[in-house]
Write a structure and sequence with these properties.
The chain has twelve helices and nine strands. It is an alpha/beta fold and 305 residues long. 47% of the residues are buried.
Length: 305
């Protein structure tokens, strides 16, 4: 039976930790420049309805370094659900390739791809969630702290797909997760409810960043207006006043907290240049670990085939 990775919760707690171990192993092999080609002779179709430099580079480079070939398919190559039905694309791509990675707008599109494809489908991002990013983020936190115990993560900004994936992670690993957002930008209520019902983690929704970050091990933010929301950018600048992660907000944690951002960053809006460049910032470790965490995910999926 083929497996997909569409949500963090598609993996059990043990499988998430096993994936981190694989990511660590692959990262060390890369640094030693070892000849390690477990994907020799395999191909991956990468469907991009939403462009992304980091997602393309990390998947394409990582798969190549593990011996495989990754094929980039942009919006002009495949128009999901418009020029051709998603279920048709899924079945055709699966006959050419060993795995499909899709970065799309509509979450329903990645669900349909997985339903109709006979090979594993990996969610590279949808408007609902971004599981590969949160796997990379958690792996990065593990690297820096050495453990994931007693972890308080405070996300400051829009209750978006990053938040939804953190909530999914909180259904697998015990976290104290706080989303500090303006009142009209709260995360999906159903996802919040499911996470609380799981009883694994402490979940808070706050509208006061200064109070929310107290005791935070991690302060995390993202752009205020994501791709597809740029027409809302000016209004969001008004709505998100007071939600910028600056030096004062980092100091308000009361401890040597780490700063994270999934990139790209709009310096001067959701955070300041001084925070991005500070010793607390691990944003470029996050960016590097996208490749290693994704390789771990792919290896985990193929081990189950």
């Amino acid at each position: 039976m083929k497996r997909d990775f569409l949500h963090v919760t598609d993996f059990s707690t043990d499988e998430i930790l096993e994936t981190f171990a694989l990511a660590k192993e692959v990262k060390e092999r890369f640094r030693r420049r070892e000849h390690y080609k477990p994907f020799d002779g395999r191909t991956m179709a990468m469907i991009f309805a939403k462009p992304s430099a980091r997602t393309r580079i990390s998947f394409e480079t990582g798969f190549f370094r593990l011996g495989g070939h990754a094929l980039y398919l942009g919006p002009e190559d495949i128009s999901l659900g418009t020029r051709e039905a998603v279920k048709d694309i899924a079945r055709v791509m699966a006959r050419y390739n060993d795995v499909i990675m899709a970065r799309v707008f509509a979450h329903d599109h990645v669900l349909k791809l997985a339903h109709y494809a006979s090979v594993p489908v990996v969610n590279g991002l949808t408007d609902y969630n971004h599981p590969c990013q949160i796997m990379a983020d958690t792996f990065t936190i593990l690297e820096h702290r050495g453990h994931l115990d007693d972890l308080k993560i405070v996300y400051v900004g829009d209750g978006n797909n990053i938040v939804h994936s953190w909530l999914r992670m909180a259904q697998r690993l015990p976290l104290h997760f706080v989303c500090a957002c303006p009142e009209n930008y709260q995360p999906d209520a159903e996802t919040v409810a499911l996470t609380r019902e799981a009883g694994f983690s402490e979940i808070e929704i706050s509208h006061d960043p200064s109070s929310a970050v107290k005791g935070a091990d991690i302060v995390y933010t993202d752009v205020w207006a994501s791709m597809g929301q740029k027409e809302e950018a000016e209004q969001r600048k008004i709505d998100f006043q007071g939600f910028q992660v600056d030096d004062l907000l980092m100091e308000a944690t009361g401890k040597p907290s780490l700063f994270m951002h999934c990139l790209p960053v709009e310096r001067g809006l959701e955070t300041t240049d001084s925070v991005v460049e500070s010793k607390a910032s691990i944003v470029f470790d996050q960016a590097e670990n996208r490749m290693h965490a994704q390789n771990g995910i792919l290896l985990k999926l193929f081990s189950k085939l």
